[in-house]
Write the structure tokens for this entry.
Amino acid sequence: MLRILTTMCILMLLSIPAANAMKIKDYHKEVMTGDNGKVECSFCHGDAKRKTIPQASACETCHGTPDDVAELTQRPSDADHDIEPNPHDSLHYGTDLPCTYCHQEHKESQVYCNQCHEFQYPDMKR
């Protein structure tokens, strides 16, 4: 399954003409724009080809480890069952699910868990 998802992502990225013409979230654009005014793809993609999926360590540079993010999005222990579960600490994957399964930079993000469930996360950014 992961191989199919990776292949699909790579094929989609190959069809995009130029990185600076790509859609980038405003809050990331501020951080990733170099002195020349252009977005530095290497900020997320490192030395790998631009069209590769970033390593989790690229996300961790700014957002912290998966455990840090899970702690930030932890639900109150006394919460009732109407509150959605913590998407960063799932019952199935714990904190091991790669960030890029849900969070997309160049297209709309989606909730990976919604392939089987129907969770609503109203604060999820584009």
